[in-house]
Design goal:
Elements: E1 5-14, E2 17-27, E3 32-36, H1 43-51, E4 58-63, E5 66-67, E6 78-81, H2 93-103, H3 108-121, H4 137-149, E7 155-159, H5 167-184, E8 187-192, H6 195-201, E9 204-209, E10 212-217, H7 219-224, H8 229-234, E11 241-250, E12 254-259, E13 263-268, E14 270-271, E15 279-284, E16 289-291, E17 300-309, E18 313-319, E19 325-331, E20 341-346, E21 352-354, E22 362-363
Parallel strand pairs: 3-8, 3-9, 6-7, 7-8
Antiparallel strand pairs: 1-2, 1-4, 4-5, 9-10, 11-12, 11-15, 12-13, 14-22, 15-21, 16-20, 17-18, 17-20, 18-19
Helix pairs in contact: 2-3, 2-4
Bound molecules: adenosine-5'-diphosphate (ADP) and magnesium ion.
Length: 365
């Protein structure tokens, strides 16, 4: 049995401290949703409220069609996998996988009937008689997932499950998790501070900051159409470039912006319409900047500090005329350059404009 779930105006207060504020969110049956945000933004608190490990201060949680706001954790049909796998060290893999079932009084045969297919799916069959200390990090992680799976949860919760693994294993487990979800299709909520994990695993991403939702969308929605500067800065690596821009003129269809180095730059008129003299931020990703062949028209100067050549891709690190840092990404650079400065072309259709509060100013058309 599977189920979607819905959070409505969910709040969490620890004493007087508001940790989660007015979170409303609908998650579809079988969907893989990732909560992402910086450390301390309330991801774990939100997940623990869904699991029933923390009380929901106000608001409601429904799973399937049932109000589960005050349901005991054991009765929510939810399984949670933590960062520390919390396996029983003195039990074998088989013992760990079947532990929860044995505790509910199921017979040996019943336990085996549930454990064996899960062990097979997670490729643990050859490891069933080992203790956790005889397993690699990735294998332990698979046992922790298997232990949750044998209980046939309606909803699967993960709290930073890959943070303890080394970089290579993290990538491998990420792929395994994605494939596992494809196979079993259980509604999944996955918490991480790593935007790459969020981008690669999620059907939809929920970006959180200070206990509030900043934006909800598919990975590509967030990348191509961020609602605010926080989301634009959080999604994408290297981080998006922020260029200070002053409104020089407001025309019928276009804004004229002054960029660092007194460069005049034209941008489609956004709504709401900014005022002359207003200070805005023009943001463009390193991969969307290009070297300008004709430095005359609207190109900004970049002072280059150093280059990183990774082979397929190269990065130039430097600063603009006002000292603001800037990164340029180039594909397949054939020979190294030591030019102290470059002209950068900014494609207005690739650049996002934000007001001083960080809200997106979208072109009107
Ligand atoms: P994240 O998982 O995004 O790193 P958490 O949900 O763990 O963030 O924490 C969110 C905020 O709530 C933090 O500021 C944290 O200090 C606070 N917090 C978490 N648990 C408690 C608690 N039991 N009592 C008081 N404050 C808490
Ligand atoms: Mg956390």
């Amino acid at each position: 049995m599977m189920a979607g779930l819905m959070l409505t105006d969910v709040n969490k207060k620890y004493g007087q401290v508001q940790t989660v504020t007015d979170v409303s969110l609908e998650i579809g049956d079988g969907e893989f949703v990732v909560f992402v945000g910086p450390s301390g933004c309330g991801k774990s608190t939100l997940l623990r409220m869904i699991a029933g490990l923390e009380e929901i201060t106000s608001g409601t949680l429904t799973i399937g069609d049932k109000d589960e706001t005050r349901t005991e954790p054991a009765n929510r049909h939810i399984a949670m996998v933590f960062q520390s796998y919390a396996l029983y060290p003195h039990m074998t893999v088989r013992g760990n996988l079947g532990f929860a079932l044995r505790m509910t009084g199921e017979s040996k045969a019943e336990v085996a009937a549930k454990v064996d297919p899960v062990a097979s799916m997670l490729q643990l069959e050859a490891l069933m008689d080992r203790k956790p200390s005889q397993l690699s990090g990735g294998q332990r992680q698979r046992v922790a997932i298997g232990r949750a799976l044998v209980r046939s949860p309606q909803v699967f919760l993960f709290d930073e499950p890959l943070s303890n693994l080394d970089a290579e294993l993290r990538v491998q487990m990420r792929v395994e998790l994605a494939q596992l979800h494809k196979k079993i299709g259980i509604t999944t909520i996955y918490v991480t501070h790593d935007q790459v994990e969020a981008m690669t695993l999620a059907d939809r991403i929920v970006v959180l900051r200070d206990g509030q939702i900043e934006q909800i969308g598919t990975p590509l929605d967030l990348y191509h159409d961020p609602d605010n500067l926080f989301v634009a800065g959080f999604i994408g690596s290297p981080r998006i470039n922020e260029i200070s821009a002053i409104v020089a003129a407001v025309g019928e269809h276009d804004l004229t912006l002054t960029l660092p180095g007194e460069i005049s730059f034209s941008y489609p008129l956004p709504a709401p319409r900014p005022k002359v003299g207003e200070r805005l931020t023009l943001a463009i990703r390193p991969e969307h900047l290009a070297r300008a062949d004709d430095p005359a028209s609207g190109a900004v100067r970049m002072n280059v500090n150093y280059w990183e050549h990774l082979g397929g891709v190269s990065y130039a690190y430097g600063s603009l005329a006002d000292g603001q840092p800037v990164i340029l990404e180039q594909r397949l650079v054939q020979s190294t350059s030591d030019a102290p400065s470059l002209a950068l072309a900014i494609d207005p259709s690739r650049a996002f404009l934000f007001n001083s509060a960080g809200d997106r100013l979208r072109p009107m058309s």
